[in-house]
Amino acid sequence: MSRTTQETASTFDIGGDLNVNRLGYGGMQLTGPGVWGDAPDRDTAKKVLQTAVESGINFIDTADSYGPHTNETLIADALHPYPNGLVIATKGGFDRTGPNRWITNGRPEHIRQAIDGSLQRLKREQIDLWQLHRVDPSIPVEETLGPVVDAVKAGKIRHVGLSEVRIEDIERAEKVVPIVSVQNLYNLGNRTWEEVLDYTTRRGMAFIPWYPLASGPEKLAGKIRQIAEKHRATTAQIALAWLLKRAPNILLIPGTRSLAHQHENRSADQIELSDADFAALSNEE
User: Fold this and answer.
1) How far apart, in whole angstroms, are the C-alpha atoms of residue 21 and residue 269?
2) Residue 5 lies in a domain
3) Where is the chain membrane-spanning (predicted)?
4) Which of 191, 275, 195, 264 is nearest to 233 (CA)?
5) Residue-range definition of the domain harbouring residue 62
6) CATH code (residue 68)
7) Which residue of 5, 45, 65, 238 lies most exposed, with the fewest beta carbons within 10 A?
């Protein structure tokens, strides 16, 4: 069952030392159809990234598989030289063979190449947060994480996270390298990973829900509409505000290729849901 927090903090320290605003930006939509190829309108895509940072966003999430590779290059083209305090998280662990095609690859040589490629494309000497995009069931995670450990020791990676994992996956990975974040599917309408979220909250790990803008099942539509009208907000803004109130370690990375939608998303952290609003949305019955 979801719980409220007494107050909604606006920032979180990833790994204890990377202070970020809890409302960040996810770059995946700044690619072609099927997350394949470069952004169709590259100039607007660069402006979206620049405007995000100008608005105070200092946490951007990407992956080597977005494009593939084009999203990381776009971020560097738009924002390098990077302003102080900007945290860029990327991911590795997928092969891409075409639009909407994702093949898990946890082979150590692939992971090593992914890390070095991300560093080069992002024009960084160190990746702030590198996340394993998926655990490869055909490769022991200890082997997959071997090059990650080497990269941490070499100063190429500052912090390490995981994506779409169970608690036992986190605990197994932690025997190899410290884990500071988890990125799982979670939103108002899909709370499958509730147990993992609560685990990360207890552990002080960042929880980064992907697909955060889903506004819930049809049976919640009436409640969401009422609460949105009360706050003079959109349903998407209410969905984001609910996540921010759900747990203090949740970091949001809504993505958009539209400047107008970006402004709308960015305003979600100004919405303070009451405990009654939160409870009404949290009740899935």
Assistant:
1) 10
2) no
3) none
4) 264
5) 11-282
6) 3.20.20.100
7) 5
Q: Which helix (H) or strand (E) holds 20?
A: strand 18-21
Of the candidates 66, 82, 186, 211, the residue annotated as catalytic is 66
> d(Cα 61, Cα 39) in Å, to the nearest integer?
16
Structure tokens at 41: 């309108």
Known catalytic membership, residue 66: yes
Q: What DSSP element (H or E) covers 59?
A: strand 59-61
Structure tokens of 113? 């190449």
Tokens linked to 54 = 């100008």
- What DSSP letter does each residue of 190-219 carry, written as one string? B-TTHHHHHHHHHHT-EE--BSTT----GG
Residue 101 lies in a domain: yes
From first to last of its 285 residues, what are the pLDDT tens digits of the chain? 444 444 568 999 999 999 999 999 999 999 999 999 999 999 999 999 999 999 999 999 999 999 999 999 999 999 999 999 999 999 999 999 999 999 999 999 999 999 999 999 999 999 999 999 999 999 999 999 999 999 999 999 999 999 999 999 999 999 999 999 999 999 998 999 999 999 999 999 999 999 988 767 677 788 999 999 999 999 999 999 999 999 999 999 999 998 988 888 888 989 999 999 999 999 865
What phi and psi, each to the nearest 5 degrees, are found at residue 126? -145, 135
User: What distance in Å separates the CA atoms of residue 88 and residue 98, rounded to the nearest whole number?
Assistant: 25
**Edge-to-edge strand list for the sheet holding 181-183:** 25-26, 59-61, 87-92, 127-132, 157-163, 181-183, 206-207
Domain total in the chain: 1
Q: Give domain status of residue 1, yes or no.
A: no
Task: Tell me if 225 is assigned to some domain.
Answer: yes
Residues 6+ apart with CB under 8 A from 283: none
State if pTM tops 0.85.
yes
